[in-house]
Amino acid sequence: MDGTILSSAAAAERVWGAWAQRHGLIPAEFLPTMHGKRGVDTISQLGLPGVDPIEEAASIERAEIEDVDGVVAIPGAQEFLAALPSDNWAIVTSSSKALALRRLEAAGLAVPRFMVTGEDVKIGKPNPQGYLLGAERLGVAPSGCLVFEDVEAGVKAGIAAGSAVVIIEHAGHKLETAANYSIPDYTGIAPVIRADRSISIAEKS
Q1: What is the pLDDT of residues 149-194, one digit of tens each?
Q2: pTM
Q3: SS in 3 state form for the chain?
Q4: Which of these, 24, 32, 23, 22, lies nearest to 12 by C-alpha position?
Q5: Which helix H or strand E contains 112, and what residues bound it?
């Protein structure tokens, strides 16, 4: 969701940057490491003494729900998603459900029929659990899914799930893991719905 169909980096980095400063971290060094992962996982991995990752993640979530200034749809995303059958796509996000719904609303994007959020998994990205659950809810094999991602943890999760992965470059994250395909945004592509309800992606002429 974040970085793949909507842009929330500015809001997220305002909240997380302030949190990092309060805990003696250097925001410029810390912020690139927190995208695409559950907040509780990001904080746990830091191993900060005297910090409860669950409490801190909940506090950050509340701040992110309040701050959606600058959250907008990625170019072409609204039209692309509207062209998809509602039972053929899902959001798999590290965000909580409350935050996901708030950001979708702010970006003017519809809530999908199927959604997997941070509360639905025991282990977050780069573990593939979220994408495996997303495929299960769609009723298809993970190998029959196309994952759209923008960050390293997400790309690794999609590949580990056995899905093909498209990188959305709009957020500008630096990635080390190669994917099957990369596009700047959705303005140059469109879904093609086949008679059997399967979908392929075509470049616009």
Answers
A1: 999 999 999 999 999 999 999 988 888 888 889 999 999 999 999 9
A2: 0.84
A3: CECCCEECHHHHHHHHHHHHHHCCCCHHHHHHHCCCCCHHHHHHHHCCCCCCHHHHHHHHHHHHHHCCCCCEECCCHHHHHHCCCCCCCEEECCCCHHHHHHHHHHHCCCCCCEEECHHHCCCCCCCCHHHHHHHHHHCCCHHHCEEEECCHHHHHHHHHHCCEEEEECCCCCCCCCCCCEEECCCCCEEEEECCCCCEEEEECC
A4: 32
A5: none
